[in-house]
Every structure is written in structure tokens, then in C-alpha cells.
Amino acid sequence: MAFELPALPYADTALEPHYSQKAFSFHYGKHHRAYVDNLKKLVAGTDLEKKTLEEVIRAAVGNPEKAGIFNNSAQVWNHTFFWNSMKPGGGGQPGGDLLAAIDQAFGGYDKFVEQFKAAAVGRFGSGWAWLVLDGGALKIVTTANAETPITGSQKPLLTVDVWEHAYYLDYQNRRPDFVQTFFDKLVNWDFAAANFKK
Ligand code: MN3
Q: For residue 182, how far is its CA from the centre of ligand 1 (angstroms)?
């Protein structure tokens, strides 16, 4: 398939002031676009060119000779998932079955946010923090660099990009403030709930 930069699911000004148009212009317009452009170049003329993005990620993971393909394809997927993990007017608690599952797994919504924040802040260097379903149980996990839960058996529901490039323009070095704002103002629980039901 042809790999393309997917459109943002909202205007690049829609998350102001919590995630700025300037941040999107770099993070989406330059970083995400570069992963797409690099991937296209790396698979051009190979048997991976006609595969889906998920197939490319799974074909390349763990293969040192395909590290560039893995890193760029997984970063394309992770960023698209991250944009969908936020929405204009987001923030606050989920409802229904997902809230009940969070209460059961983490001892309440506030405890969940504290644990997620601790995991996201504790990921040294570049990576991602995720809420996943793992064998029917909700878990908070982090991945390094481009790594993504979809190469294993975990099903991601939600992610926060904790690469410095994700928050530096709006939050400078304050990763904890970015993750707190994500849960207070940005998180798209409708997206997570849809993934939870799939
Ligand atoms: Mn990023």
C-alpha cells in the first residue's frame, strides 16, 4: 500500500492552548511526516512496499537489518494513534465499562492517573506510555523509542508520546505537566472506549 501521512483528526489549532499549533507544525508537520517519507524510501522496490503498515511493522521488528524500517513504520503508527488519543474538549474521566475496568484494575480513576504519570515520567529518554489490554486485563506499560505494543499480544487503548519533541515547545522540560494536562484537558476517552470494545 502507499504509505501516506494521515490527516489530523482535528484542526491543528483545536487543542490550543494545551497543545499548540506551533507544536503540531513541528511534531505532525515535520516529525510525523519525516517518518512517513523515510519509510517510503526504505521500502521502495522491496516486497514490503505493498504491505499494510501493521504488516511492515511486524515483518521488521527484531530484525537488525530492518531497524530503520521498523523505527519509521512503528513511529508512523504510534503517532497516528497518539493524535487520536487526544480531542478538542477532551480530558476528564471515561464512562461506562471502561471506567469500571479502570476502577477494578487500578483502584480508582485518580490512582490510575497517578500510576500512568509515574510510568510516563519514569520512562528514561524517548518513548511512549500506553494503556493496554493484556489478556483481558488493563495495564499501564511504556515502550522505548519506536517500540509499540502491537508487535506483541497487548492491545493498545491509549498512548502518550513522551519523546522530548512531543512536549518541549509547549512544556519545555516539564514532562509531568504535559502528562497531567493530557489527562485534564486532552485525553480522548471515546477513542480508548472504542478500542476497549473491539
Ligand atoms: Mn513524537
A: 14
